[in-house]
Every structure is written in C-alpha cells, then in structure tokens.
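Researcher: Can you fold this with zinc ion in place?
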Amino acid sequence: MAQRNNQNQEPTKSWGLLILRFLSVKVILIVILLFVGISALGVLIGGSTQQDTLGVGGGCSVSGELNEETFNQTLEQAGVFKGKGNLFISIAKEQNIDPVLFAAIAMSETGWGTSKAVVEKNNPGGIMDSATGMSTVKRFSSLKEGMEAMGVTLHNRIVVDGLTTIEKLGNVYAPIGVANDPNNLNANWIPTVTAIADKFGGLTMNCSNTGSSGGTGKYIIPVKNPRVSSGFSDRINPVTGVHESHKGLDFAQPIGSDILAADDGKVVVVMKPAVSGSGFGGYGFVTLIEHGKNKEWTLYGHQSEILVKVGQKVKQGQVIGKVGSTGQSTGPHLHFEIRKKKMGGQVDPAPVLGVLATS
Ligand SMILES: [Zn+2]
C-alpha cells in the first residue's frame, strides 16, 4: 500500500527523478539488448563456423579416418592414377596433408587423371615451368616425381600458409574472376573438389589445423628444472663491434636429461649429427619440429640421443630426446630455438616461454 502511494505520488512530485529512473531503466535495457545482440551474433558466427566444419559448400568435412577401401576403389576410375592409392597416402603422410584432399585436387586438376599435362608430362598439380617463364606446365620424369612436387606445394599452402579448407585453397588455386579464366571455370573449383573429396570418403584432416599437426599454440619449456645458461642475441656488440649471434636459448642440463616437445607437431628434421652445409651444421644431434597451430618450428640442438623419426607426430611434453653436448658445444645443454621459418627466422624464446634470460 505504501509503495503504491509512493508510485502515484512521485511522478507529480518529481519529474526529474522519474526521468532519471526511466533513463536508468532504459540504459539497463539497452545494455541487456546489446548483450543479447552480441550473444546472438556470437551464435550466428559460431553457427557459420559450425557450418564450415560440417562441410557445407566446400568447407571442412572431416570424417577423421581415411577409408582406404573407398579411397583406392575411387582411384580405379582415375586414369593414370589407377592403383596409385598408396603413393597418394605415403606422400600425404610425408607432407602432413590430407590424402583425400590431395587426391581430390589432383582429380580436379587433371580431369580424373586424363589431362594432357598428367598423361604427357606427369604433372598432376598444374605446376608451371620456371624454365619457360611459367608459360608451360612443367614436365616431370615420372608420375611419382610430379605427385611429390604437388605434395610439397600443397604442404606449403595448407600447413605453412594455413589454407586449411577447400574454400581457402580455392581462393588461391582458382580465384574467381581472374584474367586467365575467361570462361569462369574457377567458379567450379570449390564445389568440384568438395564433391570429389566426398567420393573419396570425405576429408580426414588439416581442416582448421586439427589433429596432432596443430597443437595448443602455447609452448612449454622443453626441459624439466630449467636453468638458462645463455640467452638469445642477434646484435652488434656496441663495445667490441663483434656480431653476437645466438639465436636460441641454452638450458644447462645434466647429460641424458629429458628433452620435451614444446608443443604438438610433426618432426621434419632429424640429423645425427648435422653436417656443415646441411643448414644445421654445428647443432650436433638436432631435431626440428613443425607446429601447425602457430605455423612455427622449434629446434632442439646438441642432443646425446634422439628418440623420434622424421615424419613422426609428437605431443606436447613428449620426450623426444636426451640432453647432450654434440656439435659446437662446450658443455651439456639443450639449445632451443623458435623459428618463424623452417630455415631461419629465429625469435627470442625467453619471453614466449616466460623465462628470464640475459644474453
Ligand atoms: Zn645455444
């Protein structure tokens, strides 16, 4: 009763207060509406991502497992690719790409293994010849060689550049509306490759960097009980004028200590030891791991023992080797690098790992 009185009285008594109240209710309403709006937008965005993963219109339809029977059977009707299932699979494994996507693009590019380029020049991927100024397709000495070259190209687009869906690849492989495509054939690329991939049993990996080639994107310190004995430096010493270049972090460790993979990834280089001229000279027993999530590489040098092989997928924290003092090393330690490129582009791991280091 008292309340109703209050409500009846106040409007006449104080318009200002009412307006204020009204305003604050409005502000609250607006905030709520905004919040709901943003959530709805989030759902929409989430929804479209979801659609992408479900493979509508050339997105990422990942069934997970390769159905080898379907895969090989489908290749039976594929011209020169008949019986090449194992070759597709082994090259795909080597390059950390999806054999289904690899084969689907090869079918699309070659009219199911019947094009002149693949029949006469063993070229399934439309790779142009730099010797002719890219005016003709390159000739390979065998179909295997041509497929391997295509595998490397796809690895660079999918793993290195991160084009993890058919759509993203299509925008690069077959851009719509370009001058060299007057009949607009490129518009068919995405739906064609998608349909062929489905025939092969559906994509199995690479989409949005899923699988062990992806990783968490956040590196862990690659040794237990870390003690940094030498930091990262890449500078001209202002006093001595000498170029100081130590493009990694050194963790002093007893010989035989465990070395841990900094993140999920794929082993791309193992040398026991690295020889000069290999690009890894001086590192002794060295391992390089490619991380799909960050599109980066981590390097582990001077090991006494390496426990992984090239092509092997590793998990974050997995013991991949043992600390040693091989190569150009003055004492047992792990030399650890984070690289933006496979062959270089080192960055200081200290801030990334959150460890203190002075150079
Ligand atoms: Zn070092």
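Model: Folded with zinc ion in place. The first helix runs from residue 2 to 13.
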